[in-house]
Each structure stands twice: as C-alpha cells, then as structure tokens.
Write a structure and sequence with these properties.
The protein is α/β, with parallel strands linked by helices and 553 residues long. The chain has helices spanning 7-18, 33-40, 53-67, 85-94, 140-155, 195-207, 225-232, 256-260, 265-271, 286-294, 323-330, 341-362, 367-376, 390-395, 418-427, 439-444, 470-473, 481-487, 496-502, 512-524, 538-550, and strands at 3-4, 23-26, 46-49, 71-75, 98-104, 131-133, 159-165, 173-174, 211-215, 237-241, 275-279, 299-303, 315-319, 383-386, 405-408, 433-438, 459-464, 505-509, 530-535. The protein is globular and about 70 Å long. The model has no long low-confidence stretch (mean pLDDT 97). Bound molecules: thiamine diphosphate.
C-alpha cells in the first residue's frame, strides 16, 4: 500500500478509516497532496474528484443526506475552503454530517506574505460543531482532536472542520505506516425522556380539543405506522405535513398553503390550536409560520434529539428524543376527547380539493400547470430533489405519490447548490432521481454538471421562466426595470449548450403537448443523464398562481 510520508496525513486517514468513513470528495491542490495521495491510494475509500469546491461541498452534502454518515471534503489552502461555506451552513441547519479537511501551511507561515494562505483556523466558527486546529507534528492531542471532530459530526449530525498544516515536501510516499493513531469512541450519552414530564404533557393533551401536529423536513420512513395511525384516528388532532416531511396519510393535510391561504380571521381563530407538536426540520410554508406566530398555541412542544427552534415564539418544551421514542411513551398515556377540530378542517380540505381540480383543469400552460404534470408523472419509488424557491413552493400545492421521497436544501434555502446536492444524492442512492429546478438556481450551480459521476438515469426538469419567478409571486413585485434587472434577473439563456458541453441529452417543451411528450421521452431512456427544459410564460405565471388562492373558497 502507498501512504503519504507525512505522519499527520497518515493519522487523519487511519482514524477516518477506523471510523468507517469512506466517501471522500477531493478538490485539486498541492497543499492537500498528502491527503489526496493517501485517500486515492487506498481502495477502502471511495474518492470523487470535483474541481469546484462549492459544488464539491454540495455534492458531499447530497451523499451524506442519503447515507446518514459523514462525507469528507478535502481541499487545498487559501480561498478553496471558503467555497465550502454555503454547503457547510446548509449542513449545519439541515443537520447533515460533513467533515471538512483543509490543508494549511504551518501557522508560522500565515500572514507573512506567503502565497495562497489565509487565516484558516476556525474559519467556519459560526456554524461549525467542532474545530480541530491541528499542529504539524503527530501527537496524542492531534489524535484526540481528530477523533472529537469525527465523533461530533456523527453524534450532533452536522459539519465539523479539521485544519491540517503540512510543510513541503508534500508528494513523498512510503509503503509502511509510521504512525499508530489512537481511535476513541464517542462518549455520547443515551438520551432518555423524563416520565414525569410526559405524564404532565399527556394530562394537558387529554384535556385539549384542538391539537395540531406540524411536520417539517424528515427522512423517509422514519415515523412509525403506529404513531401515524394514532394521529389519523383522533378527532381532536389535525396533522399538517410539508412535502419534505416524507410522512403520508390520507387524513393528513399535505397542502398547507392551499388550505389556509384563503382563511378569514374567524377561520384562523377557529383553527388556533391549544397544543402544537412539531418535529422534523425546517418548515417551508410561510403562511403556517405567520399563522402560528399570530395565533400562538398555549403549548408548543418540539421533539428532536438535538435542537428545538422557537419558530413561533411560544416553545414550551423540547423533548430530546426521537419522535418514535417520544410517541411510544406518550401515546399509551393519552385518550381521545370529543372534538370537531379534525372534521372541520377535513371539510375545508374536501372543498379545497374540489376547487383545486377545477382550477387546474382550466388554467393555460404555465409554471403551475407544469408542476402539476411533472409531479403527477414522477416515476413511483423515485427520489425527487427540488430547488429553491418557487419550485418547492409549487410542489407543496400538488399531492405527491407516497412512494416518492422528497428532498430540498431548506437549511439555508440557498439556490447555490441544489443541482450538486441532487447529483451527490443520486450517486449514493439506487433510486431513480429526478431534480426539478428553476432557471436561476440551475444556472447558478451549473458547475454541478462538471464531474464524471452523474448517473445515467439522472433527470433534470428545468423550468425556465426567464428569471427568478419567485420574485413575481412575493409581495413587492412591480413591473419596473429595477425589478427585472435586480430582483428577477431576467435573461434569455437556455441550458442547451451546457447540456451539449457536459454530454447530457437535451429535450425542450414549451406547451402542454410537448411537455407530455418530453416527460415520456426522458423516462423512456436511461443511457445518458438528461435535461428537459420547459419554457413557461414569464408574465403570466404569477397571475395564474395568485388567482388560484382566490378561487379556493
Ligand atoms: C445563494 C442564494 N442567493 C440568492 C437567493 C435568493 N433567491 C431565492 S429564490 C431566487 C431566484 C430563483 O430563481 P429560479 O431558480 O429561476 O427559480 P424560480 O423562482 O423561478 O422558480 C433567489 C435569487 C438564495 N436563496 N440563495
């Protein structure tokens, strides 16, 4: 076996291997040569070469999102590691484990005029769960820091930074290891739930006639069927699921905005919950957030092993266990209470469904129509990756087949890495992956296509509405040159040449007929990844969407 000669590089590689972390994304550089040589020479590691660090980091995020294990990013010194920051922040807020391994010069070479050096230590301090600032010589202290960083990424499900200084020569190798690194297990305590607290909460629950459960970003199949059924059969419980929650039941509300946007003050008052239980990550629906901030529940309990955000300004309890653990303890202590909370909301749901269908059957070709067609024709058991921002919002309005897993970078809601994340996820996932994106997000992250790993069955559905369509939907839209230039960033670009340059199939649709044909065509071939670019009418999309909310009553 070939190993880097530098002992510190050997230590890092050995400890990662001992902890079975094997997905390594390497961006080119010289300072990181000891790490690159070490990882690439060892068949135990699956190494990916991606030149653009911003894209590399989102690609790594996609892999970690699917595997649930930390993915390692390796880069050179200087500005390289700053380009990881968008994905690093996304990983922090989405609770996805990432390990950034940045090569550095020794501290004595920083800020003395040496080339390609910046202050790398603690550079992600605001969003990093652990910063291992290593010293050049191998030591127990270094080993401890490396172990701590990796254990933290696992236990706290988020990004960590290991900064490793290397002095030249960087490319020398040896055939025997010269270090014997120490590996420490995590000291993670098993989380338990206070029985007294659960009994107290169950008593409140049993007397409440209006209980709302709101589920944000969640891994597929993570909530037990028993819990789902218990919610579904309680007439005092309304469950609202976001598309990214990956939780399904026919009695749950999976189109929050469709239900509550037309609400009057009376409707909101009647819907105000006494108890709100939330679990899962970020919530997309702005309207539910605005509602719960204004009509606050008396009790808001969040269930998550790690974090609880006070999103609505009324958080009263954080149960630091998994939802399944919580409900397994909690539900046996509860009983039902007479209530019309569910039936009233269910009547609204039935009405909205009817109006939704009428509206969609009469609208012309537009973003909304395209989302309906695209979502309804997604292959069963596939994985859907969606970009920000109007894409995920449209997707929340259309029912998605429960066999389809849905993901979106909602940690920071950035448009800067959705394509790279989708490709990373597709690489480490055997399911058919479909990625729906807007044009600005797609063009922003076009370097996502610059790698050799895009699976042949990867499909991009690019909805090109000539700019940032979201800004036409948000309040503040005014058809002025300032709006077109600085908000919408209006353009006439297409993906045709990018598709050609990167060897992807390219199909165009610009009306309903060509869309249906295009969708059929992309799903019928799997010998090349492809882009279906759908052109929609810029000036009509927002009017059609905004009118929808008016016709739901
Ligand atoms: C990195 C980053 N920069 C800017 C934004 C603000 N932003 C949100 S959506 C959006 C435009 C997205 O346009 P497009 O991808 O075409 O999608 P559409 O809204 O048309 O569906 C922008 C610039 C962001 N979310 N992330």
């Amino acid at each position: 076996m070939t190993y880097p000669k530098i002992p510190l590089a050997q230590s890092i590689i050995q400890i990662l291997l001992a902890k079975e972390i094997t997905n390594i994304i390497i961006s080119p550089g010289s300072r990181n040569a000891p790490l690159t040589i070490g990882f690439a020479s060892n068949p135990a590691f699956q190494c990916y070469s991606i030149a653009d660090e911003r894209s590399a980091a989102f690609f790594a995020l996609g892999i970690a999102q699917q595997t649930g294990k930390p993915t390692v990013l390796v880069c050179t010194s200087g500005s390289a590691l700053l380009n990881y920051y968008p994905a690093f922040a996304e990983a922090f807020y989405s609770q996805i484990p990432l390990i950034v391994l940045s090569a550095d010069r020794p501290q004595s070479k920083i800020d003395i005029g040496d080339g390609q050096t910046i202050r790398q230590e603690n550079v992600y301090a605001n969003h990093s769960l652990y910063n291992a600032n290593l010293l050049e010589a191998v030591s127990d202290e270094n080993d401890l820091k490396i172990n701590e960083a990796i254990n933290t990424a696992f236990d706290k499900k988020g990004p960590v930074h290991i900064n490793a200084p290397f002095e030249e020569p960087l490319y020398e190798t040896v055939s025997e290891l010269s270090v014997n690194s120490s590996v420490f297990a995590s000291a993670k305590a098993i989380q338990t739930i206070s029985t007294a607290e659960v009994i107290e909460s169950a008593a409140l629950w049993n007397n409440a006639t209006r209980k709302l459960i709101l589920i944000g970003v969640n891994d597929p199949e993570s909530i037990s069927n028993k819990t789902i059924e218990a919610f579904a059969t309680d007439e005092s419980v309304v469950v609202m699921t976001e598309t990214t929650s990956n939780v399904h039941h026919s009695s749950f509300i999976n189109n929050i905005d469709t239900i509550i946007t037309p609400f009057t003050t009376d409707d909101f008052e009647a819907f105000q919950p006494e108890i709100l239980i939330t679990f899962g990550g970020m919530v997309v629906s702005k309207r539910i957030k605005a509602f719960l901030r204004k009509y606050q529940p008396k009790h808001h309990w969040h269930i998550d092993t790690l974090r609880a955000y006070d999103t609505f300004g009324c958080l009263t309890k954080h149960f630091e266990v998994t939802p399944n653990t919580f409900f397994e303890t909690f539900l046996p202590l509860t009983h039902t209470i007479g209530s019309d909370y569910f039936s009233k909301m269910n009547a609204v749901k039935t009405l909205r469904k009817e109006k939704h269908n009428i509206y969609l059957s009469k609208i012309p070709f537009s973003d909304f129509k395209v989302f309906e067609k695209v979502i309804l024709t997604l292959p069963k058991n596939s994985q859907l990756q969606i970009s920000n921002s109007s894409a995920i919002r449209y997707a929340q309005l259309i029912p998605i087949d429960p066999s389809i897993e849905v993901y979106c970078n909602r940690g920071t809601s950035g448009i800067d890495g959705s394509t790279s994340t989708a490709i990373g996820s597709a690489v480490s996932n055997i399911k058919q992956t479909v990625f729906i994106t807007g044009d600005i997000g797609f063009l922003y992250d076009s370097n996502a296509l610059w790698n050799n790993y895009i699976p042949k069955n990867f499909k991009i559905i690019l909805i090109n509405n000539g700019g940032g369509g979201i800004f036409r939907i948000l309040p503040g839209h005014d058809e002025t040159p300032v709006f077109n230039t600085f908000f919408e960033t209006s353009h006439n670009l297409t993906a045709e040449h990018l598709a050609k340059m990167y060897g992807l199939d390219y199909v165009v649709a610009n009306d309903e007929l060509s869309l249906v044909k295009g969708l059929k065509s992309i799903y019928s071939q799997n010998d090349k990844p492809c882009i279906l670019e759908v052109f929609t009418p810029t000036l009509e999309n927002n009017t059609i969407l905004l009118q929808y909310f008016k016709e739901l009553v």
